[in-house]
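Reminder to self: tokens first, then the designed residues, so the page reads top to bottom the way the pipeline ran.
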């Protein structure tokens, strides 16, 4: 199921519950294809939230949960980070996206750049190359500044955020 986002403590708690439940359901699942879908986690959006989320899920699977199951090996979980743009952390200085990419790859995250998700369903996500079967999809993309800077005709930065004084 595609989550609505990550804006509150309740949202974070819901994401944690969904991730842990996917492992629990995979533990009792006998169908290999269903088990693989349960152990595939898709994070959509390569900004700060998506990068952090993909890394956290991979770390939980490979470290915290690695010995907690009898029938599955959580370290085999597949974590995909899908970003429509050409690089992760596009609003950061050029060194940071490369650092983040290297760190995520060391954690086992599969990073797909320049690939937009066109549809989310209970069965997975649709990208240009086809469907990626997944049960847990976390939407961390599409965050944009309020159009208030335009309404107010205020000075804004390159991300359309209103520039304010530090007072």
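Designed residues (167 positions):
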């Amino acid at each position: 199921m595609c989550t609505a986002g990550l804006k509150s403590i309740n949202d974070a708690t819901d994401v944690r519950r969904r991730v842990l439940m996917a492992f629990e359901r995979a533990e009792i699942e006998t169908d290999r294809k269903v088990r693989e879908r349960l152990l595939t986690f898709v994070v959509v959006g390569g900004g700060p939230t998506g990068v952090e989320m993909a890394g956290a899920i991979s770390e939980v699977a490979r470290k915290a949960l690695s010995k907690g199951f009898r029938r599955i090996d959580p370290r085999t979980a597949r974590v995909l980070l899908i970003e429509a743009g050409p690089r992760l952390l596009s609003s950061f200085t050029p060194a940071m996206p490369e650092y983040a990419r290297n760190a995520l790859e060391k954690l086992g995250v599969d990073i797909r750049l320049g690939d937009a998700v066109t549809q989310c369903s209970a069965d997975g996500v649709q990208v240009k190359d086809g469907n990626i079967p997944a049960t847990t999809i976390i939407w961390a993309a599409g965050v944009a500044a309020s159009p208030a800077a335009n309404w107010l005709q205020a000075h804004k930065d390159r991300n359309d955020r209103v520039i304010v004084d530090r007072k």
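The mean pLDDT is 91.
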